[in-house]
Write a structure and sequence with these properties.
Structural class of chain A: mainly alpha
Strand content of chain C: under 5%
CATH superfamily of the largest domain in chain A: NADH-ubiquinone/plastoquinone oxidoreductase chain 6, subunit NuoJ
CATH topology of the largest domain in chain A: Four Helix Bundle (Hemerythrin (Met), subunit A)
Order of helices and strands of chain A: HHHHHH
Shape of chain A: globular
Strand content of chain A: under 5%
Radius of gyration of chain C: 21 Å
Number of strands of chain C: 2
Helix content of chain C: over 70%
Oligomer: heterotetramer
Distance between the termini of chain A: 64 Å
Distance between the termini of chain C: 37 Å
Strand order of the largest sheet of chain C: 1-2
Chains: A mainly alpha (about 170), B mainly alpha (about 700), C mainly alpha (about 500), D mainly alpha (about 100)
Largest sheet of chain C: 2 strands, antiparallel
Chain lengths: ~170, ~700, ~500, ~100
């Protein structure tokens, strides 16, 4: 087990452990912070998969954006009276069964499948990703890129429209 | 060929004036009458140019034809064509001359009419279509103009459309003509289906080569004659013509006396080569009978225009008789002379009616201005009218030195020689001579009652005046043409009695009567001899002159003794044969007969059709709908008791099941998701096993 | 995009635009309608200029013009297949022209204009599409598209008995459509590989058995006979005509009736030649019945519009008679009669609309003497009546004469009787003319206004066409004769 | 250690946990967190496949777009949650069961 592996394992543990905390913690604020760690762990994993740009994006957008958004959501929707902001669970038994079943199922598929992995020449892919991503976005992925921008705009306007105060 | 183009210009000029008149007539000065009349005089001049050329050429075989494509279907073609030969040239002059003078007369007669400009538009249209009938070389073209002539006749008869009698008469004229045209069209269909052409030249070739012969050819000939019967008001389709007198008098003169009604005769002249012996005999009998029959009716009528109308029918019968007995040229000749003197008679009557109308109007007397019993002694007041009228009467009666004498004489001679060869047809000359006598009688009756004696409505006497110059000039013009010399002038001589040597007979030769020679005469085989058939008045001529003079003279004398010297009383005669008199007076009840049979039948039948539609067919449709409704009512009952029982049972079961399953519907998506996952597992497990 | 797609769908676009316009902007709605129909007419005229008069079409794709052939629903072998030949093009021309004029005739529609014009344009799409389609499935779709707006246009904007008339119309034609659908499927499954392509079906016509041909012919025939309408399937027509608003009567009589005979010529004849020959005599007899029955029934009518409706039945009889004989003159005359009847009967219905707008009734006996009050209107009406009873020099005569000329050598006695129908026709038209326009004017009509400029505008083009075709019919015959002569070759070699 | 399988297993675990959160949480915002987890699991898979299976960076790019979608989804979903809260004074999903009626 090399140092790389240890770090990798570390990130994996952080990711999954925090995710488990998200699911099982009673308090929603705890869950939110656990989610932060989990996402951070995913960012770490991205680095290992040589997706450095993506890792940066993950941290900036997920942790800086989405998580903050979620926290705002939490704060805006809790009743002022209830100081302990809890998040209870329902249908635990069925959920547990279904969850376990799902996990087993996916695991079986992963292990049983014979993933074809071509011979790899890890030459140039490590250091020129940002540039490549930029080029690809402006050429090959231009259409999805534009669509994504329209989608963002629509989501922005839609969200603002929905939460506007009805009184005015 | 240049002449033919000239003729086409003659044809199109009235169309142009018609268009001008219908669209701009009311805006032109004098409502545009000068346009129409002027154009007609130009037409006359052009026609005279053509006629002069024809006379100059003096060639019986002169013939110019212009063919052009009209409809072409790739397989079947329908070209049209114009023809200019001697017959056409003569007809052109007749039509344009009569038209021009009558148009001129109309300016006076129609003065002040609210629809003055439209009247002239219609007149132009009539001239256009009539000239078309004359000029077309093609049966299809002739048919087109033939119907258009009928249309203009319809429009002009019904010109004073606010009078019910006028609009009735117009309708009657058109529909009666349509009946005739129906026959003519069928004749065209027969000809076309056998020969594939409508061109007269082509048909002639076809008949000569025997492609169309026998019964079919006879049928075609008779059917064409049916068209002529309609247009020329022959028995039994003569009923429209007397009614047509509801139109303005110049119209009666132009259309219903001189030109249009003669179109039937002209048509027979054109297709004479396709007449078989049977069809000629049919033509002769119908013509002869009509001549006689109409004359008897004219005897007792009192309306001045109706007398003339029946006399027209009778004279047209003469022409048909001539054509039927083989006197081809004589028939056409009589057409021409008749056109002039009959137009003159009508215009004279118009002048009388005009004067009467104004006189009666002045004294507020509502007596009928057309009834001859209200007239009398007009010769002193209306000198020009009287003298011209008298000339025309002499002509129509067939007094020597008039045009009518030579033409009628030629016809009578023809019938005599025909009967001489086929004694079984003795009735034909009988009809002819009898009609001649009666004609002389009733025409002089008319003259005596109108112009002699005393005026019957004394208070209006002072108001009777001769008509204006614009009306009397045409009268004089026509009167001139009642003298024989115009017609008998030959190459270098003028014959007193016989037209035989005149230019007319030189130029207008009967065609070799191909159908007659090609076919067998079925009912007189032993007498029939081929070379004799082109029957022209020959040896029987002088005999005919003598006989006709005798009969005509008798007619005039009897008339004189009845109405002037009063030695014979018409009333006594009428009382002696009341049935005969009533029959004549009521036109032999032909109209009533038609009303009771044909027209009634059509109305009943159409009402029946309507009833059938509304009751039977709609009944079936609506009935089937009703049956469906009733059926569905029963079905509804059945439903309520039986089906509903089952259905309700099922519904109850469903309800219970629904209550059970509703327990699973929590409204929570999360529950659903779990269910969904479990479902997936179950499926996968099943698949794996 | 080809011409045919454009002319078919421009009205639909117009209809879509109208549905998005606010209800109150009536002037704008009318403008859009005029623009849509006018553009269609313009394109049709451009097509007319580019139309090759020598290409026969009928059953060869290469001989069609303005062809658009794309795969549409590949699973069922359905194509988007459009093209015109000499048979369909005159009808398209007629449709485009009449729709354009009828928009103006609809100017006085006084309620729910938005829906009216939208449905009207939808109707135009249906009609033009039907004439353009060469794929049976597409044909059927357009055929149905046509049916629905008609139902609403009669049922909502019609006269007092509109519901009855609309439902009668709908059920009759739906019944016809059903039979057509069955026949269509019969063709589809008989052909191997299964196809809706009309031309393929025609080219395979020799492989169909006689029994198959007869049965399918009868089914199709009933479907089309209802549209024509052929006795005894005709009673929807007087009701629908009388109740429909004027422009819709015009469209109904001038174009929808032609769908029936067009269908027979386009579908029944080339697809089922044996049956067409076998049933020709029956068709001629039905034509004769139509001519005489329609004429007699028209004579007995008291409602002017009903009279015109029955005269349509009578006139369509000439088309049937001409179609039943496979001669050049007969079939050319029949299609020319379709075209002429379209223009003439359109005129007649517009004319009836004019008087109905003024006097608010159509009882013939209620009028009299209008000739002195409305001289221009009288002149135009006389013109239309004369054209309708076949006065030479006007278009109706040419086509009737050609039909008779074509039919006589084949069916002598039938033709003789048919020609006598011309007398009856003249009789009832003249009688009507007399009862409405001649005689003394009644006092209550002394204030009736003369026909307006807009109304003359809708009538004048038709008058010009009628007169022109009556004097020189070759421009129209040129369009169709190559196709029709070839059709005879195909059906009756 | 860094193999495709291990990455996929991490993804699977993350996915299952996210799914569990969606299934069992009462609070709508917690459910949203679960959705985020699921999306991250998907992203890991994309990137892992992209890394191990090709020289190209399609995986990364698709992951980028997934992030974009996640952002918009989060924004819209939160707006909905706020709306629900405003109308029903609760964000507990088992109390929001108007689908039942």
């Amino acid at each position: 087990m090399s140092g790389f592996d240890i770090v990798f394992l570390f990130f994996a543990v952080i990711t999954i452990g925090s995710a488990a905390l998200v699911v099982f913690s009673k308090k929603i604020t705890h869950a939110a912070f656990a989610l932060m760690f989990s996402l951070f762990g995913v960012a770490g994993l991205y680095v290992f998969l040589s997706a450095d740009f993506l890792a940066a994006v993950q941290i900036i957008i997920y942790i800086g954006g989405i998580l903050v958004l979620l926290l705002f959501g939490v704060l805006l929707t809790v009743k002022i009276s209830s100081i302990t902001i809890t998040t209870q669970s329902t249908q635990r038994i069925w959920g547990a069964i279904a969850g376990t079943g799902l996990f087993i199922l996916v695991l079986t598929i992963i292990i049983r499948a014979d993933w074809f992995i071509p011979e790899k020449d890890p030459g140039d892919i490590y250091f020129t990703q940002s540039r490549q991503i930029g080029e690809r976005l402006m050429t090959e992925y231009l259409l999805p890129f534009e669509i994504a921008s329209v989608l963002l705009l629509a989501a922005l306007i839609g969200a603002m429209f929905m939460i506007r105060s009805e009184d005015k | 060929m240049t002449l033919l183009y000239l003729a086409i210009i003659i044809w199109l000029l009235p169309l142009l004036t018609f268009i001008i008149q219908i669209f701009f007539g009311n805006r032109l000065p004098r409502k545009g009458d000068w346009v129409v009349v002027g154009a007609m005089f130009i037409d006359l001049a052009l026609a005279l140019v053509i006629f002069g050329n024809v006379i100059y050429k003096y060639n019986p075989d002169f013939r110019a034809v212009l063919q052009f494509d009209w409809i072409s279907l790739g397989g079947q073609d329908f070209p049209l064509g114009f023809v200019l030969d001697n017959v056409t040239a003569v007809m052109l002059v007749v039509v344009t001359l009569v038209s021009a003078l009558i148009f001129l007369y109309s300016i006076g007669y129609m003065k002040g009419d609210p629809l003055y400009s439209r009247y002239f538009a219609y007149l132009s249209f009539f001239a256009f279509s009539m000239l078309g009938v004359v000029l077309f070389e093609n049966l299809f073209g002739i048919y087109i103009c033939w119907e258009l002539v009928g249309l203009s006749s319809y429009l002009l008869i019904g010109f004073w459309f606010e009078k019910d009698s006028a609009s009735d008469a117009g309708k009657k004229a058109f529909i009666t003509n349509r009946v005739g045209d129906f026959g003519m069209f069928l004749g065209m269909l027969i000809v076309f289906s056998a020969l594939g052409t409508f061109s007269l030249e082509g048909i002639k070739n076809g008949v000569e080569s025997g492609q169309l012969s026998g019964t079919l050819l006879t049928a075609a000939g008779i059917l064409f004659f049916m068209g002529a019967v309609g247009k020329s008001a022959q028995f039994p389709l003569h009923v429209w013509l007397p009614d047509a007198m509801e139109g303005p008098t110049p119209v009666s003169a132009l259309i219903h006396a001189a030109t249009m009604v003669a179109a039937g005769v002209y048509l027979i002249v054109r297709i004479v080569f396709m007449l078989t012996p049977v069809s000629t005999v049919v033509i002769a009998y119908i013509g002869g009978f009509t001549a006689f029959f109409a004359a008897t009716i004219a005897l007792t009528q009192n309306d001045i225009k109706r007398i003339l109308a029946y006399s027209t029918v009778s004279q047209l019968g003469y022409m048909m008789l001539a054509l039927g007995t083989g006197s081809y040229a004589a028939g056409l000749f009589h057409l021409m002379t008749h056109a002039f003197f009959k137009a003159l008679l009508f215009l004279g009557s118009g002048s009388i009616i005009y004067a009467m109308h104004h006189a009666l109007h002045a004294v507020n007397n509502d007596a009928d201005p057309q009834n001859i019993n209200n007239m009398g002694g007009l010769r002193r007041k209306m000198k020009v009218t009287f003298w011209t009228y008298l000339v025309a009467t002499l002509a129509i009666s067939g007094v020597p030195f008039t045009s009518g004498f030579i033409s009628k004489d030629a016809i009578l001679a023809g019938t005599l020689s025909f009967a001489g060869r086929y004694p079984q047809h003795f009735l034909l000359p009988f009809f002819g001579f009898a009609a001649a006598g009666i004609t002389a009688f009733y025409m002089f009756r008319l003259v005596f009652k109108t112009f002699f004696g005393e005026f019957k409505i004394s208070e209006a006497r002072e108001h009777i005046h001769e008509s204006g110059k614009i009306m009397t000039v045409p009268l004089v013009g026509f009167a001139v043409f009642c003298f024989f010399a115009f017609y008998t002038a030959g190459n270098n001589s003028i014959s007193l009695s016989s037209p035989g040597e005149g230019w007319f007979y030189d130029l207008i030769k009967p065609p070799e009567q191909t159908a007659m020679t090609a076919a067998e005469m079925p009912f007189s085989e032993e007498i029939y001899e081929q070379e004799e058939l082109p029957a022209e008045p020959g040896a029987s001529h002088s005999y005919a002159i003598f006989l006709s003079l005798l009969i005509v003279g008798a007619g005039i004398v009897v008339s004189y003794r009845t109405y002037i010297s009063k030695t014979i009383s018409a009333e006594t005669w009428a009382a002696m044969y009341p049935r005969l008199y009533r029959g004549m007076y009521n036109k032999w009840y032909i109209d009533e007969f038609y009303h009771a049979t044909v027209i009634k039948l059509i109305f009943v039948w159409s009402a029946l059709c309507r009833w059938f539609d509304n009751v039977i067919i709609d009944g079936i449709v609506n009935g089937s709908a009703r049956i469906t409704v009733i059926f569905s009512w029963f079905e509804g009952k059945f439903d309520n008791i039986v089906i509903d029982g089952i259905v309700n049972g099922i519904a109850n079961a469903t309800q219970i099941l629904g209550w059970f399953t509703r327990q699973f519907q929590t409204g929570r998506i999360q529950n659903y998701l779990v269910g969904f996952l479990i479902g997936i597992f179950v499926i996968i497990i099943f698949r794996m096993m | 995009m080809g011409f045919l797609t454009l002319i078919t769908f421009i009205p639909l676009v117009g209809a879509a635009i109208i549905t998005f316009l606010p209800k109150g902007k009536i002037a704008l709605i009318k403008k859009v309608s005029v623009a849509a129909t006018g553009l269609t007419l313009l394109l049709t005229i451009i097509m007319l200029l580019r139309f090759d008069r020598t290409m026969p079409g009928i059953n060869k794709e290469g001989q069609f013009q303005f062809v658009e052939h794309h795969k549409w629903i590949e699973v069922f072998n359905i194509d988007y297949f459009m093209g015109v030949d000499g048979l369909s093009f005159p009808m398209i021309l007629l449709t485009a022209l009449l729709c354009f004029l009828c928009v103006f005739a609809s100017w006085n529609i006084d309620r729910a204009q938005k829906g009216y014009f939208a449905l009207f344009l939808l109707l135009e799409t249906g009609m033009i599409g039907t004439f353009c389609s060469l794929d049976f499935f597409l044909f059927y779709i357009f055929w149905e598209v046509m049916l629905l707006p008609m139902y609403f246009l009669i049922g909502i904007w019609g006269g007092p008995r509109r519901e009855y008339a609309a439902i009668k119309f709908f059920l009759y034609t739906l019944f016809g459509s059903l039979l057509m659908l069955l026949s269509m499927l019969a063709f589809y499954f008989t052909n191997e590989p299964h196809t809706f392509n009309m031309l393929t079906i025609m080219q395979n016509s020799i492989t169909y058995t006689r029994t198959f041909q007869y049965w399918v012919y009868i089914a199709l025939f009933i479907g089309f006979a209802i549209k024509v309408p052929i006795f005894p399937f005709h009673t929807w027509l007087p009701d629908a005509h009388v109740e429909a608003p004027t422009p819709i009567s015009v469209i109904l009589a001038a174009i929808l009736l032609k769908m029936g005979t067009y269908g027979l010529l386009r579908i029944s004849y080339p697809m089922l030649p044996d049956a067409a020959n076998y049933f020709a005599y029956g068709l001629a007899i039905l034509g004769l019945i139509n001519i005489l029955y329609g004429a007699f029934a028209a004579m007995a009518q008291t409602d002017l519009k009903k009279l015109v409706a029955y005269s349509s039945i009578s006139h369509m009889g000439y088309v049937l008679l001409g179609m039943s004989v496979f001669t050049s003159a007969g079939i050319n005359g029949a299609v020319l009669q379709m075209f002429n009847h379209g223009t003439i009967t359109a005129m007649l219905f517009l004319i009836v609309g004019v008087i109905y707008d003024r006097a608010h009734h159509r009882e013939i006996s209620g009028f009299g003497g209008l000739g002195s009050q409305m001289p221009i209107y009288t002149g135009i009406t006389s013109f239309a009546f004369f054209a309708s009873f076949g006065l030479p020099g006007l278009s109706g005569f040419i086509s009737e004469a050609m039909v008779f000329i074509g039919a006589f050598p084949v069916y002598k006695y039938i033709t003789v009787f048919a020609v006598s129908g011309v007398i009856i026709t003249a009789g009832y038209f003249l009688w009507t003319l007399q009862r409405i326009f001649l005689g003394k004017l009644q006092d209550k009509y002394k204030t009736l206004p003369e026909i307006s400029g807009m109304e003359i505008f809708t009538l004048a083009p038709l008058m010009i066409i009628i007169l022109f075709v009556g004097v020189y019919p070759m421009p129209v015959l040129n369009l169709m004769r190559a196709s029709l002569n070839y059709l005879i070759e195909v059906v009756h070699p | 250690m860094i193999t495709l399988d291990s990455c996929l297993i991490i993804g699977a675990a993350l996915f299952t946990l996210g799914f569990l959160a969606v299934l069992t949480k009462r609070n709508a915002i917690s459910v949203l967190m679960g959705v985020e987890l699921i999306l991250n699991a998907a992203n890991i898979n994309f990137v892992a496949f992209g890394f191990f299976r090709s020289y190209e960076i399609h995986g990364v790019l698709i992951a980028l777009f997934v992030i974009v979608i996640a952002v918009s989804e989060a924004a819209v979903a939160l707006a909905i949650v706020l709306n629900i809260y405003r109308n029903m004074r609760t964000v507990n999903l088992d109390e929001v069961d108007s689908l039942k009626k």
